[in-house]
Amino acid sequence: MSFDRVLIANRGEVVIRIARTARRMGLTTVAVYSEADRMAPHVDACDAALPIGGNTPGESYLVVEKLLDVARRSGAQAIHPGYGFLSENAHFARAVLDAGLTFIGPPPAAIEAMGDKALARRRMAAVGVAVLPGYDGDDQSDAAFEREAQRIGFPLMIKAAGGGGGRGMRLVPSARELLPALSSARSEAASAFGNQRLILERALLDPRHVEVQVLADITGHTVHLGERDCSIQRRYQKIVEEAPAPGFDTELRTRMGAAAVQAAWTVGYVGAGTVEFLYDGREFFFMEMNTRLQVEHPVTEAVTGIDLVEWQLRIARGEPLPWKQHDIAFAGHAIEVRLCAEDPVLDFLPQAGRIEQWQAPGGVRVDHAVAAGLELSPYYDSMLGKIIAHGASREEARRRLRNALEDTVLFGVATNRAFLARLLDQPAFAAGGVSTGFIAQHFADPATRAVPPSYSIWALAAWLTVRAAQDVAEEWRGFTSAGTVRLPVRLACRDAQRSGYVVHARDRPTEVVLDGKALALDPHAGHISRQVGNRLYLQTADGEWTFEDRRLAARTAGGEGSQDGRLLSPINGRVAQVAAVAGARVARGDLLVTLEAMKMEHALTARVAGAVTAVHVAVNDQVAPGRLLVEVTPDPNKTDR
Question: Strand, helix or coil at 152?
Fold first, then answer.
């Protein structure tokens, strides 16, 4: 099991993070990259990098034969799978071992035992670890699910049996929504995991999602490194994680840790893994085991001082764990947020495009794979990196993280940076009141997930836009005899638009007039901005906005309302399903098209009731934002738009 050259079979920030520890240990690292990732930062983070071709994961990072070939050609003796892609794929682990290489992860049998949620539920129940009432049978027919759903009761949760990460997961409030949810979950599970088997579980509507980090060596000695609370989620995917879980007492912490160790020991686990639980305020229930390194592992490293990647590598080399359970010490509190290319206002839809400016904050840990000029592809996950703050107390960690988010700058694509800052400021979060329903409870209205620009921000944007215009140098010299010049401006920010002018004078402050109203302007107010083409990216302590210079934009004859019946793509993505049929009638809210982007499916529905007059896409088409997908002619005299 000796090795000195490691292939990291993944992409993005996890490659950079693993390479950092491997190099410190004196190991040589090898990266792989798809055609879409040719210029990605992780390519330069390793000692060597080899191409594996293709753009999509199915053409590159998921092709076992390509990865093994690169390992052979590069001289790597071990493969670290990172997280995601093949990290929980027993076939891949077995192929690595059969090739005479070391797999830096658990044995294939342990991956199989926990990778199948149905099998895992049965095994945990057999050893006394509590599971939620549910159905994990082999009969996958709709009739079987309808029968079992009635037995379990609503609301219930559909889950993909062969994977996690929120993919293939659907909340079903009542029997009426069951069959459509089964169809959607099967499709997403098959796409994400190559396995459309599903299970049902009774839904806990507002639980906490708490997981326990475990380490196990080849002798079977297993310890846990405490718990992490991962309750703050959108689309059943985590965006805020912290250690330890707020509000847990010693007795609960001890019982949950012991259950996690029992779960790992039962399946003969080796390496670093995470046992996940749902906690309803009284009792906890086994949910699943992630047989890999987790995205949120830095918060555990912060409070324990243990480098989890180092111990993955040491365990893979056959080294025993040096600690008994009582040797594991915890210090302070750590909170991590996931910085993602997504738009919180548009239901957290993932975004692709070019990063124009990037500035990482100081004083905290930042694991990322971001660089100015990087093109974000629609083929991969939306996460760009993580920002982690550690403090003596939870409040200290929260404040440090909040300040770090304010110091973070990423222009070019929409991100959740400002939303994360608002979330950390929410009094309920500051008080430790976290749950999986947190965002639905406190940010249900999309308008609450972002701060609209104030009049002073509009004024600042107007001044910055005209100052950056190509013809400003000439116009600002064209003063009238009175010593003033009026510079026209027409700006848009999301659905809002303002027109007017900026008045510049020699002998008095610049004035901005928008929509007939004179606005106060403080050009020296603290802000960061960048003008790219006709777009202005602006960030202050209150939020961030993208303004579009519309001075040269053509006005449509019909106005914005004329677009109501046209379905435009909000994202870069692949057409996974076309439900619309030309000539058919649809009601408002009916499914028209499903897009797949950044490993998730996104249902697009009719905005109006009417007749489908044209369908412009087919399954597997790749579409860009603004692409016309479907046209619906609205019914006359309908007002429910």
Answer: helix
